[in-house]
Structures are given as structure tokens and as C-alpha cells.
Amino acid sequence: MRVLLLNPPGREIYIRDYFCSKTTKSNYYFHPVDLLALSGTLAQEHEVAVLDCIAERLTPEAAHERIDEASPDAILSLVGSVSWDEDRAFLAIEAEAQRRILAIGDVLHENAEERLADEPWLEAILDDFTTRDALHLLARDEAPILRATWRRPDGSIHHRNEPRKGREHRLPRPRHELFPKSGYHFSFARKTPFATLLTDYGCPWPCTFCVISTLGHSTRPIPDVLEELDHLRAQGTHELFIADQTFGVHRPRALELCRALQERGDLSWTAFTRPDLADDELLSAMQSAGCHTLIMGVESADEAVLAATRKGYTTDIVHAAFARARSHNLRTVGTFVIGLPEETEASLSQTLDLALSLDLDYMSLNVAVPRFGTPFRAQSIAAGLTDPTNLTMDQSGATIALPTHSLTQAELARQKRRMIRRFYLRPRYLLRRALSTTGPRALLTEAREGLALLSRNTLVRRRTPNDRHTVSATHRSSSGV
Ligand code: SF4
Q1: DSSP labels for 202-234?
Q2: Which end of the chain is more exposed for a tag (fewer CB within 10 A), N or C?
């Protein structure tokens, strides 16, 4: 079959991947990890093409034309709550051309049978991009399907959600070469081109607001990761965004991977980890292997919020981890989530003080979003804060989705802008940023990104509750950093 992996067009630059979706207002945009993983799996049995309409900035009309030219038998498309109405309208047109439509995305991660019943153009929903389910669905071979929802030709709808077994999964080498050569941008990258690499899936921690916590956790065998990596190196790619949501879950594996990267000696990369994993052994191994930027979740200065969201660490641990990261010469990014129901003006001030005291290179401030499938969403629906029938939502936290018990959405938006200005407009901070850049090009990039960030956060706008803000990291934990 000819199978098209599609990221549909959009009115905005949407990031749809890994069961999240959001807009970016800066120019950061990385390769969707779902499509990367599926590209290897599907290429085992089918002729696969990739059309990333966001990377190519295609209009819907141009995208339909490109799909007509490719003439696929089936389309496996990303969809997102951020663009759900656009996505369903676009894909319904493709279904009229007798193409089979499969989809994956946040908006389908909850109540999938209901979604399928509501969308007659949609044949199947994948709920895991590391399985072979896409192959089974295309072959109409139902028995081995693990985690998907599908419609049979007789119209009946079936759902399966097998628990994840074992700690490992294998992926045929993702076909990076099928993706557009340009159109992707990652602010922390030190070289171009960069590639997005996923060496595991999910996360074993139970943070209540994080969709990744709902996926279980498994890792890819290191030889598989290295095969992918060496293929990238052979194509001239030496910069990586390692999109694992928590690097170092299994310590021996992480150290082995770092050793292999260090042996290659020509890679530089950015990764996420948790403060309570970031000890000297791990940080030293990462830095020696080429890691230059480390992103860690701080979330809040309020210990009660950390406990309520089941983060599993305290601010003391956070302080120590960032100090250690700096001592290993790593650039640091702290991600924060504000606007959880317990948030007050005082707790926001406390969080800002914490951000300032951590001496971060970047603060990534995000607003709580009731992501599909998370305990936080269930809680906010039960508390009457979220309308379960509203499927359209920007998970960047750019739009303030919820009031807190004591702050309105408008107040929260105002506080967020205040915190960003206070953090980024410190003269000493600006001087440090300027002095730490690696050359005129990097300085220009920093200046451009900084101005974009500040221009969205220094003006009081009429559209306050819908104020949009994105910054340059991408952790799903903090509501889409
Ligand atoms: S917030 Fe981070 S540590 Fe917690 S479940 Fe999500 S990815 Fe894992």
C-alpha cells in the first residue's frame, strides 16, 4: 500500500505530537515523534511518504493537491485538540477520495470509541505509536492489535487497551530521511541540522497533570538507538533533541547510552531529566557525551502543590540539582507550571523567587492545562472547572484554560506576564545571556527569540484570557513548555 504519514495544515504553527497539541508563536518546531516512530514501522511493509504541512507551511488547498499527487491508499494523520475542527474538516475531505484514514493525537487519547462514533470519516485511532498496530489495522488483522480503536467495514466499533508488557520495545529505524529537510527549528540546538530522537516511551512517574504519565514506560534497546544515531551521523546530523521525557530512568542504561555517544565524539544534544535523578554521576556522563542543555521540571515553589501533583520531590532537591547541573557546565532550563487550582498570588510570587534563586539560563513558564487522559483533567471535570464536551484546547497553556480557586483567568494571565518580565528583563541576566552566546549568529537567534517572548508579555492586551505564550522547550510535564 501507499501510506502517507501526515501532519495536516493549520491556521497557526501547531505542534501536535506525543499526545499533546499546542500552538507555537515563536519559530520553534521539531519533528513529530509519533510520525518518526511510525515511519520505520510502516516502511517495513508499505511504501511510505511523509507530508508535514506545518513544516512546509502548506495551505489546506496546497496540502490537498500534494496528497492527490502522492495518491495514498491510506493516511495516518496527527490530529490535535488545538486544531480539532480544522483537522476533522481537512481529513473528511480526504476520506471522500476513498482513502482510509487512521489518526493519533491528544483529542483521541480519551473516550476513543465515542470519538470514532462521532467521526464517520475516521477508520481507526492509534493509542500508542511504538506498536505494530498500524500495520495490523491496515491489514485488517485484528487479533494482534494492542492499543487502538477501530471501525470494521460493517460499521461496528472495537477498542483494545492491552497493558504494556515488559520494559523494552523495538522500533525499526525511524526514517528521518522522509521528513522535510527544512522547516524544523529547535532553539537550544547548537548546530544545524538537528534531529529529534526518542530512546524510550512514556514515563514511570505519576505526576497528575502530565499525559506522559498515562502511557506506562518502556525503553528501546541501545543497539537500535545507535543504529538510528549512526544513520543520522552518516547523513551529516550531529545535533540532537533527545525527546525522552525523563532521561536516565534506568541508570545503567543511561550511562551505557552516554558512553556510546561519548565514544562517537561528534554529537551535541539537549535532554530532559528530573531533579531527583540529576546527580553527579549522571550529569557528568551526559556532559561528557555532548549534552549542553538540560531541562528539568521545577513546577512550583509551593511544597503543597508538588505533593498534590505527585511530583515526588521537594524544592531542596530542585535547588541542589540545578546547582550541580551548573557545576557540570550545563545550560539549564527550569520548567514551571502555574495556575493549578491551589495557586494564589502569594504562591506565584514564591515561585518567581524560586526561579530567580535557581540562577537558570531559561525559565519556561506554563499554565496548567487539563490534558486528555490525565488525573488532573478528571479532577478538574469533577470540580466543574472543565467542560468535558469541549474538545478544543491549546495545550501550550497559552490560553489560560482554568481559573484557580482564588485567581481569575485574566489575573493569572497578568501574573504570568509579570513573572516573565521580572525574570527576563534583569540587566545582569541579559548581560550573562549575551556573554554566553557562542558567536554572532547565536546572539542574533537569542535576541530574536527573546524579543518574540517579551513582545508577547510586556503589553497588556484586550484578549487577556486568550493571551498566547510559548517558550522554547517542549516538555509535556509543564503543560507544554
Ligand atoms: S512530569 Fe515529567 S516526571 Fe512527571 S510523569 Fe511527566 S514526564 Fe514524567
Answers
A1: E-SS--TT-GGGGS-EEE--HHHHHHHHHHHHH
A2: N
